[in-house]
């Protein structure tokens, strides 16, 4: 019995070896091709099919070559089925072509702007192969577009009509229903921060009668998911490591109005305990010693996801500088003592692989080069996870895609194929706003397109109208000019300022500039601009003699630059970090050779969750090389930097006119008061101390004013049902006899 078993086993094993031998023999066998016979192709020519297959029939072909050719033909999407066979030195290729999409029809949408966006996407699919999964992807994209415009319960019925010529017509029947509006936004649970703060973090907005432009008032799941991510990242940056946005629910109030509620559990606050970097012997530990002092400073500090990400970014940068291409900085977090976290940073060694091919899918609108120009890792480069993730973040940072997904497959042991799948989204914006207060009324608005013609170019036009000024600007920005990581911008602007009633003059200024901006070093940004302006200055009989003397036309050719160091935790409503800026304007050829220098510095510190301390410094100097500074260029203290005084009504005075000066400076200190009015979620209270001065008059030193003006008071920001209201009550501490004080100031503004 046992011998019979071994006999059967040996017999089957021998058969297996023979089959395996002949299989390998077949795979390795190469045939000489003398002719090619292609059948089944109705639209594509034989030459096109051979071109797509990349077969080189001048060389002998084996089964691997044929399999690779079949794979490449399938990747074109033109074929439903492909068969290849070599018989008697003849390569036989049999294909079945996919149908072609003849037309795509949209039914059920009357809104022209939405219909235009949808047609822009669908037209790019006409005359291309029909694939059911791509139609499904397109259907989801179209559904996202209408939902982002408020049609939250929209549905699409897809119909496919077969034609006789191996083509199809696609019909999308939309059922939009009513637009779903957000009537109210609530934050509940253990949320720590006030509603007024959290509301400023999210994108969704409450619907108001005057909100007739913004689409953020409509209920949209993608926007809600973004809101949840923004809230989570903010809490984690403030030490709440285990924050949980338990739910975001939309409660129906009536047929088309909803109440959006975010249920937040902040958890406890965590602190850094020990932060360390483990480097194996094959890498130079000394190269990373600069981080030791940073790690020591972090011990005992509030946990912050932002701090960790910054450190990882800098470690990766040094690793790449040392040409450690196949490593990636990672970290482990370990909770100890209930509210402390150990951070262990280490290098994850990657396989030494290369990028053979990068495929981009889903870009129905955006040109492929816009995406590829953001790639730091390109075809043929070593695959480095750090640089690849940075590339994807650059694509996401363009803010022109709904989503960016990646799929990485190993072609073989040494090469990877990367698929980047993007989902387009509407990129146009219309905005408007209005405000009124003690300093007057303003109106503003504009139109912005972030992806003009699918080229990643930004078009921005806006205007501002106040009681004394009208300003308009049109700007074209190429964020990555010729793949240089430098922006190129062109601006045309015009303004008209009428101060005839109060100061006896008015000016009109028109011009254009061309400039560039880039990040020179980490957090160090540089902007350069070359501009040309024409200005007309007119005066009345009530104007001072110096203003009458300056009446006329002026042409300016200017070079300006700005260098800024930005270490803020966030640009909008920062709570930690600093921002320093130095700007200079130099005349190249000008009727008025004036040099302007400006320094702005801001510092923020948050010792507790809702307590924010800030200090700001403003300094400006304007001097003319060969004459007096023109009245429209003189220094005035912005009203926001000196409360308690009327705007433009301090400093040197010529007769009854406030004429500004050659130098101006302001210093501001501010502190929130989190424990006062803590029960009012939509009110923020703060105290301030302002000090400022304007001095030196180039045409008459006797008019100089060296008195420092200062004030202190209370400021309130209140999110009211009709928009954000800010008002302040200030008490002047020091003033000149010629100054005009203003104890109470308010401003009510909103967007549409």
Give your account of this protein's structure.
This protein has 752 residues and is an alpha+beta fold. Among the domains are: 1-26; 31-98, membrane protein fhac (Ubiquitin-like (UB roll)), CATH 3.10.20.310; 100-175, membrane protein fhac (Ubiquitin-like (UB roll)); 181-265, Ubiquitin-like (UB roll) (Roll), CATH 3.10.20.310; 271-349, Ubiquitin-like (UB roll) (Roll); 354-424, Roll (Ubiquitin-like (UB roll)); 634-752, Porin (Beta Barrel). It contains 13 helices and 33 strands. Strands 16-17-18-19-20-21-22-23-24-25-26-29-30-31-32-33 form a 16-stranded antiparallel barrel. A 3-stranded mixed sheet has the order 1-3-2, with helices on one face. Strand 27 (653-654) and strand 28 form a beta hairpin. It is globular. Mean pLDDT is 84; it is low at 1-9 and 11-28.
Shape: globular
Find the CATH superfamily of one domain: membrane protein fhac: a member of the omp85/tpsb transporter family
How many DSSP H or I helices? 13
- Helical residue percent band: 10-25%
Look at the structure and give the CATH class of one domain. Answer: Mainly Beta
Query: Within the CATH hierarchy, at the fold level, what is the topology of one domain?
Result: Porin
> Strand portion, in percent?
35-45%
Structural class: alpha+beta
Key descriptive features of the protein:
20% helix, 33 strands, 16-stranded antiparallel barrel, Ubiquitin-like (UB roll), disordered N terminus, alpha+beta, globular, three-stranded mixed beta sheet, 13 helices
């Amino acid at each position: 019995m046992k011998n019979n078993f071994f006999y059967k086993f040996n017999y089957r094993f021998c058969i297996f070896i023979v089959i395996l031998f002949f299989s390998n023999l077949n795979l390795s066998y190469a045939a000489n091709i003398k002719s090619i016979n292609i059948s089944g192709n109705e639209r594509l020519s034989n030459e096109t099919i051979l071109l797509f297959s990349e077969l080189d029939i001048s060389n002998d072909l084996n089964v691997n070559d044929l399999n690779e050719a079949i794979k490449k033909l399938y990747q074109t999407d033109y074929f439903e089925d492909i068969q290849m066979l070599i018989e008697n030195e003849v390569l036989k290729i049999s294909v079945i072509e996919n149908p072609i999409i003849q037309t795509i029809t949209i039914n059920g949408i009357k809104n022209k702007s939405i219909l235009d966006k949808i047609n822009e996407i669908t037209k790019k699919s006409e005359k291309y192969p029909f694939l059911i999964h791509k139609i499904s992807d397109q259907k989801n994209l179209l559904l996202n577009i209408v939902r982002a415009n408020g049609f939250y319960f929209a549905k699409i019925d897809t119909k496919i009509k077969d034609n006789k010529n191996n083509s199809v017509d696609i019909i999308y029947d939309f059922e939009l229903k009513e637009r779903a509006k957000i009537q109210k936004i609530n934050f509940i649970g253990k949320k720590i921060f006030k509603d007024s703060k959290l509301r400023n973090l999210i994108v969704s907005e409450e619907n108001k009668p005057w909100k007739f432009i913004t689409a953020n008032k409509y209920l949209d799941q993608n926007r809600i998911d973004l809101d949840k991510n923004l809230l989570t990242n903010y809490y984690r940056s403030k030490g709440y490591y285990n924050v949980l946005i338990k739910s975001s629910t939309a409660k129906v109030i009536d047929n088309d109005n909803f109440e959006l509620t975010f249920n937040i559990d902040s958890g406890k606050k965590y602190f850094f305990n020990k932060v360390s970097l483990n480097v194996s012997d094959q890498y130079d530990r000394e190269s990373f010693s600069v981080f030791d002092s940073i790690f020591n400073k972090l011990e005992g500090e509030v946990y912050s996801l932002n701090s960790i990400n910054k450190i990882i970014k800098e470690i990766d940068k040094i690793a790449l500088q040392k040409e450690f291409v196949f490593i990636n900085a990672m970290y482990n977090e370990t909770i100890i003592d209930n509210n402390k976290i150990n951070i262990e940073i280490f290098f994850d060694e990657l396989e030494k692989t290369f990028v053979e091919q990068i495929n981009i899918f889903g870009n129905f609108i955006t040109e492929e080069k816009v995406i590829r120009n953001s790639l730091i890792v390109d075809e043929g480069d070593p695959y480095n996870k750090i640089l690849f993730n940075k590339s994807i973040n650059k694509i996401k940072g363009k803010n022109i895609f709904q989503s960016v997904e990646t799929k990485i497959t190993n072609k073989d042991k040494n090469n990877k194929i990367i698929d980047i799948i993007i989902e387009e989204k509407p990129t146009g914006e219309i905005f408007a706003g209005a405000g009124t207060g003690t300093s007057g009324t303003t109106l503003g608005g504009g139109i912005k397109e972030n992806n003009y013609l699918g080229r990643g170019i930004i078009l921005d036009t806006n205007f501002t109208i106040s009681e004394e000024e009208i300003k308009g600007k049109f700007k074209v920005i190429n964020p990555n000019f010729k793949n240089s990581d430098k922006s190129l911008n062109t601006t045309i602007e015009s303004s008209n300022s009428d101060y005839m009633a109060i100061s006896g003059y008015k000016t009109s200024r028109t011009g254009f500039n061309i400039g560039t901006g880039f990040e020179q070093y980490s957090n160090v940004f540089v902007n350069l601009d070359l501009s040309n302006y024409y200005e007309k200055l007119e005066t009345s009989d009530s104007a001072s003699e110096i203003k009458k003397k300056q009446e006329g036309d002026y042409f300016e050719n200017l070079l300006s630059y700005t260098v800024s160091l930005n270490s803020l935790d966030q640009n909008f409503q920062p709570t930690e970090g600093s921002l320093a800026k130095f700007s200079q304007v130099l005349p190249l050829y000008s009727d008025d050779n004036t040099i302007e220098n400006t320094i702005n510095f801001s510092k923020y510190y948050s010792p507790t969750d809702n307590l924010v301390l800030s200090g700001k410094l403003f300094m400006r100097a304007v001097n003319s090389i060969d004459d007096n500074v023109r009245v429209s260029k003189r220094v005035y203290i912005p009203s926001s930097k000196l409360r308690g005084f009327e705007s433009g009504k301090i400093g040197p005075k010529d007769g009854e006119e406030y004429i500004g000066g050659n130098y101006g400076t302001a210093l501001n200190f501010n502190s929130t008061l989190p424990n006062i009015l803590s029960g009012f979620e939509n009110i923020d209270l703060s105290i301030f101390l302002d000090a400022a001065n304007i001095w030196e008059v180039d045409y008459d030193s006797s008019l100089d004013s060296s008195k420092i003006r200062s004030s202190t008071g209370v400021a309130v920001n209140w999110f009211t049902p009709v928009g954000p209201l800010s008002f302040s009550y200030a008490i002047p501490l020091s003033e000149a006899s010629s100054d005009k004080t203003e104890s109470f100031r308010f401003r009510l503004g909103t967007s549409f």
